[in-house]
Design goal:
The structure holds two protein chains of two kinds. By secondary structure, chain A is mainly alpha-helical. Chain A contains six helices and two strands, in the order E-E-H-H-H-H-H-H. Chain A has one domain (about 1-160). A two-stranded antiparallel sheet of chain A has the order 1-2. In chain A, helix 1 runs antiparallel to helix 6 (about 135-160), helix 2 runs parallel beside helix 6 (about 135-160) and helix 3 (about 70-75) packs across helix 6 (about 135-160). In chain A, about 25% of the residues are buried. Classes of the chains: A mainly alpha, B mainly alpha.
Chain lengths: ~170, ~80
């Protein structure tokens, strides 16, 4: 349903309930990370399985884009003059959380890479969940795609989680 | 911070949407203000007071407002009744 946004601007955006937005945020961010991890570990798997894993990426990107087409886009990325003072405070808080997310992903990635570089190679241990000695360009690209879309979708997703879904009337 | 926005708004017969449009904010912000979940800036507090026709200190207080029934009971009009 398209409706006029309740913020100070006169934009028309896809109006979804906070519950649907929360579901969409979990689905899209979870799918993107799921796609990255499965693709990383199932590199030598069959084409059918890789196609199924690829559909997770489509689901994640599609979900993120849908979330960005809703009323939460303007609340998360609205300019100062487009939203009121409370919305500005909420927007800034959501972006601080998103920044924390990026920082923690970077720290975690660094730790995983450090630990993996000291662990024995998969061939030597015979472990199914091994870690390659050299990270390919494709893996780094996939990682950046996931980081980009999840970070972009995170502020509207956070605002959707905070939204009580109250009516404008009263 | 405590406030009497809901009381004054009801007395003036304004909906949240109407009040929000008068002070140029999102209607949800009025709900946040009324519940005390958000403390307004000085500018917004002054605009609310102006629209609701009340002084800022009548609308906002750092201490809880006494119940209206107690205030009515203590007023000179009620004593004369």
């Amino acid at each position: 349903m398209l409706r006029k946004t309740t913020t100070k601007t006169n934009r028309y955006e896809l109006a979804i309930s906070p519950r649907v937005a929360r579901l969409l945020s979990v689905l899209s961010i979870g799918s993107l990370w799921g796609w990255f991890l499965l693709k990383f570990y199932l590199n030598d798997a069959s084409t059918g399985l890789l196609s199924a894993v690829g559909s997770l990426a489509l689901l994640g990107v599609g979900g993120s884009m849908t979330l960005l087409a809703t009323q939460y886009l303007n609340q998360a990325y609205g300019k100062d003059h487009e939203i009121d003072e409370r919305e500005r405070a909420v927007r800034d808080r959501a972006h601080r959380y998103a920044l924390n997310y990026v920082l923690w992903v970077c720290v975690l990635t660094f730790v995983v890479l450090e630990v993996a570089s000291r662990a024995p190679a998969p061939a030597a241990t015979g472990l199914a969940l091994g870690f390659p000695a050299v990270i390919s360009k494709g893996v780094v690209e996939n990682f950046l795609v996931v980081l980009f879309f999840t970070t972009f979708a995170l502020p509207p997703a956070i605002i959707a989680w905070w939204d009580r879904g109250e009516s404008d009337e009263g | 911070m405590h406030n009497r926005i809901a009381l004054f708004r009801a007395e003036r017969g304004l909906s949240r949407k109407a009040l929000a449009e008068s002070v140029d904010v999102n209607p949800q912000t009025i709900g946040f203000l009324e519940r005390g979940d958000y403390s307004p800036s000085v500018e917004l507090a002054l605009r609310l007071a102006q629209v609701l026709g009340a002084r800022v200190e009548m609308l906002f207080s750092l201490d809880p407002f006494p119940p209206l029934a107690d205030q009515l009971g203590a007023s000179p009009e009620s004593e004369s009744l």
